[in-house]
Structures are given as structure tokens and as C-alpha cells.
Write a structure and sequence with these properties.
Strands 1-2-3-6-7 form a five-stranded antiparallel β-sheet, sandwiched between helices. A two-stranded antiparallel ribbon has the order 4-5. It has three helices and seven strands, in the order H-E-E-E-E-E-E-E-H-H. It is globular, with a radius of gyration of 16 Å. By secondary structure, the chain is α+β, with helices and mostly antiparallel strands. The protein has one domain (about 5-175): Peptide deformylase (Peptide Deformylase, Alpha-Beta Complex). It binds nickel (II) ion. Nickel (II) ion (NI) binds near residues 100 and 101.
Length: about 180
């Protein structure tokens, strides 16, 4: 995708499972400039429109190490930008339901670290550290996975993965995925 063609009020199409961009390892962001900030705003628009609580750049066809998150705590917007994020620390393990905008309608029970600490740059290029448990920890791991081409179904044991593939096939056939 040509970033220059993106208007900040645009809502981008979220790439669905089967699109090769979702399986690629994303490249580090090299410059944090106005073009990138425009893409970030467009990603927020797209995420809120879906709606979702996290969106990684590969999901809108941009193979860069960038993700946006807004868990909307108590219904209030709390946007977070993660540029070139890095997993610094993980603790514990917890099993929980998880979905993904690139796999609409699919919900899987997968293990994640209970608590994580992530370092990144924000949209101004300043280093930030985000740490926490619960939904935040889960969301951070999910979005960082996207930057390495990893999807929620990859965390399923093999026998459950087959069931998930079957679900995906059914949904695709029924025309639920575009
Ligand atoms: Ni996802």
C-alpha cells in the first residue's frame, strides 16, 4: 500500500486470514514522521470502526512494526501507540478467550503470559514502557504476535487447530468473510 494515498479520515480494510501480509515478519519503522502519524490516525479510525481494542499495521496491509491499542477503560478512550515494540518481560500463564479482527467470528481459548512489560516508541518518537496484566497483557501479546506473522490459531494445540480451520472454512463458505 502506498502510505501517501491514505487520508486520515479513511477507514482501511482489515486483512483477513489467508492474506499473506498477515504471515510476514514486519519490518522496523525507520522514521517517525507526519506520514506515519497519518497512518496511525487512520489505524485508530479503522480500529474504532470495527470495533476492536487493538490493531497491528500488517492487518491493514502495512508490514511495519507498529500497533495501536485502546482498551477503552470504563468507556473512556485511552489510545496507545506502539512503534517497534519489544517484549521485555513476561510472567505467569493464563488461559482465556481471544478473538482477532483478521479472523472474524472466531473465538479461541489460548494461553498467554499473565503479566508483561513492553518497551516501544510512541508517535513522537519517545521511548515508552507499558506493563500490566489482564486484558492489557493479552492485547499487547496479541498485537506483538501480529508483527511476527503469528495469529491466535497458532497458539492452539494441533487437534483444536483443525477444529478452528473447519470453523474458518465454514465462515468463508457462508460469505461471512470478505
Ligand atoms: Ni488480531
Amino acid at each position: 500500500m502506498n502510505k501517501a494515498t491514505v487520508r486520515e479520515t479513511d477507514v482501511l480494510a482489515v486483512r483477513k486470514y489467508g492474506d499473506p501480509v498477515l504471515r510476514r515478519k514486519a519490518q522496523p519503522v525507520k522514521s517517525i514522521d507526519d506520514e506515519l502519524r497519518k497512518l496511525i490516525r487512520t489505524m485508530f479510525h479503522t480500529m474504532y470502526a470495527e470495533p476492536g481494542i487493538g490493531l497491528a499495521a500488517p492487518q491493514v496491509g502495512v508490514p511495519m512494526r507498529l500497533a495501536v491499542v485502546d482498551l477503552m477503560p470504563e468507556g473512556k478512550s485511552s489510545p496507545m501507540v506502539l512503534i517497534n515494540p519489544k517484549m521485555e518481560e513476561k510472567r505467569g500463564r493464563v488461559l482465556s478467550e481471544e478473538g482477532c479482527l483478521s479472523l472474524p467470528g472466531l473465538s479461541v481459548n489460548i494461553p498467554r503470559a499473565e503479566w508483561v512489560r513492553v518497551s516501544a516508541l510512541n508517535e513522537s518518537g519517545f521511548p515508552i514502557t507499558v506493563s500490566g496484566d489482564g486484558l492489557l497483557a493479552r492485547c499487547l501479546q496479541h498485537e506483538l504476535d501480529h508483527l511476527d506473522g503469528v495469529l491466535i490459531i497458532d497458539h492452539l494445540p494441533v487437534h483444536e487447530r483443525l477444529g478452528a480451520f473447519w470453523e474458518i472454512r465454514k465462515k468463508k463458505k457462508a460469505g461471512l468473510w470478505k
